């Protein structure tokens, strides 16, 4: 989970995730949305993949990236549990 939070701390990587929310994209299609070099985009994709926030799949000669929604569900679950107030016995207060 630490890697996921680290990856989410960067605005470029958050924008990549927003793009992938709409549809799966190749690295070239992703880089078209940014004013930076393709190697820089590749580094961002590498960090997102290392954090398990995205997955890749080779189709023909292109690699397409997609969101890994399982990790997002884990993060949301953690955040929800974090915000719930516990009673003195460790249960949720009513």
From TrEMBL:
Residues 1-87 form the HTH arsR-type domain. The keyword Translocase does not apply. Keywords: DNA-binding, Transcription, Transcription regulation. It holds the Pfam family HTH_5. PROSITE patterns: HTH_ARSR_2 (PS50987). It comes from the Bacteria. GO terms for molecular function: DNA binding; DNA-binding transcription factor activity. PANTHER family: TRANSCRIPTIONAL REGULATOR, ARSR FAMILY (PTHR33154), TRANSCRIPTIONAL REPRESSOR SDPR (PTHR33154:SF33). This is Winged helix-turn-helix transcriptional regulator. It comes from Gottfriedia endophytica. The lineage of its organism: Bacteria, Bacillati, Bacillota, Bacilli, Bacillales.
């Amino acid at each position: 989970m630490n890697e996921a939070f680290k990856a989410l701390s960067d605005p470029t990587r958050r924008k990549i995730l927003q793009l992938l929310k709409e549809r799966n994209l190749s690295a070239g299609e992703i880089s078209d949305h940014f004013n930076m070099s393709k190697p820089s985009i590749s580094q961002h994709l590498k960090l997102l993949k290392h954090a398990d926030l995205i997955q890749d799949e080779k189709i023909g000669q292109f690699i397409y990236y997609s969101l890994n929604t399982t990790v997002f569900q884990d993060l949301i679950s953690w955040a929800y549990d974090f915000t719930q107030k516990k009673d003195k016995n460790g249960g949720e207060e009513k």
